Amino acid sequence: MIRIAGGGPAGLLAAREIARKGMDVTVYEEHGEIGKPVQCTGLVSRSGLDALDVDYADSVLNEIGQARFVSPSGKEFYLRKRKGYALVIDRTEFDNEIANEATSEGASIELGRRLLDEESITIAADGAASYFARKHGINRNYVVAYQIENRMKVDVDTVEIHFGSFAPGFFAWLVPVDENRVRMGLGYRPDVASRVHDAYNPKTALRFFAKIRGYPWVPISEQGGLIPLFDNSPSVFDNLALVGDAAAQVKASTGGGIAIGGQCAMILGKIVGEGGSLDEYESVWREKFGRELRVHLAVHKFYSKLGDAEFEELFDAVDDEILRIIEKNAEMESISGLGPVVMSYVSKHPIKAMRLAKYLKYVDGDVTSMFKFK
Ligand SMILES: Cc1cc2nc3c(=O)[nH]c(=O)nc-3n(C[C@H](O)[C@H](O)[C@H](O)COP(=O)(O)OP(=O)(O)OC[C@H]3O[C@@H](n4cnc5c(N)ncnc54)[C@H](O)[C@@H]3O)c2cc1C
Questions:
Q1: pTM, entire model
Q2: Buried b (16+ CB within 10 A) or exposed e, 137-161
Q3: Which CATH superfamily is domain 2-37+92-139+233-296 in?
Q4: Which residues contact ligand 1 via a Cβ below 6 A?
């Protein structure tokens, strides 16, 4: 029997795939209900959701077509896709749909049960603060997130991403749920926050952010959570496999973990269900997503080092040509194709390139070696 710690998307998707192959599998979820409490904004690309092969229609709350990026002083640009390119989902509904699919395939779910031992093959899908990852000596870096659901009039089609020292090392976001409701939050890196603020408090910072942007503060609910930063540490230890947030299979640029973590869980479930080795899982998911996750991490590292004045300078440098290049060559789930096309843009604009060359020091060596533009 295969045992899975954690009844979030990763644990449930792994269980569904294992059960589909006819193997006994039990998911242990420490909470009394699947999908609660929610610690998520629920923004996922349609293609990312489709890749999970879940009947997610009932969990869709809103459809998104574009993203508005805003500098610390309020300069803006838009990246446009088509309406419904990304979806806002109800995580409780979504997680329960996967749980239903897993149990109809024959998986068992034990609620209110915490799993802490690893006697036989154990899958640790125990989330960002994974006990099993820490037990095996993994000490990750995190983004800490705070979010409210806010009552305010919004453009339902547009998500907003705001950079500035109110969100040190990450950004603030607005994700509309409907015309009168938005998930408004921010993330910060404690190490960056301690360098730029004496006593950083995310709730105070989010209130400050809302005030300077002229957004009302009418919270309907609030939540917080951790976003683990991908770090290339191992995901397999003898009979134990980490998956999802527990393995930091998260896009560090945005904090999104549902699509890639979920696909890694499906890879793991299929391999385990067919009696394959956990080492095979490690090599298959790295082959499929390793490069992408490294590029997202490099993007995160880049913007996390920028101060407010530097964001302003970079926003000034953004023009229609680069925006169209990004729209054409980047997807929410895949940005690694951007490297070569951005370099070709830079080579066509030598004066701009010289002005921005000082930012090369913020580009991670890992990504420069990947794209060979050092
Ligand atoms: C504020 C915030 C906003 C986010 N927004 C987005 C977003 O818009 N889009 C996106 O793609 N991602 C987002 N994420 C990330 C996303 O929520 C995670 O990547 C995703 O939930 C990971 O799924 P998981 O199954 O690995 O872990 P989780 O969903 O965290 O599930 C882990 C489960 O394990 C249980 N558990 C823990 N330890 C044990 C144990 N020992 N035994 C039994 N059960 C245990 C927990 O109770 C939990 O139910 C956000 C995260 C945060 C914090």
A1: 0.96
A2: ebebbbbbbbbbbbebebebebbbb
A3: FAD/NAD(P)-binding domain (3.50.50.60)
A4: 5-11, 28-31, 39-44, 114-116, 125-128, 131, 145, 147, 185, 225-227, 244-246, 250, 255-259, 261
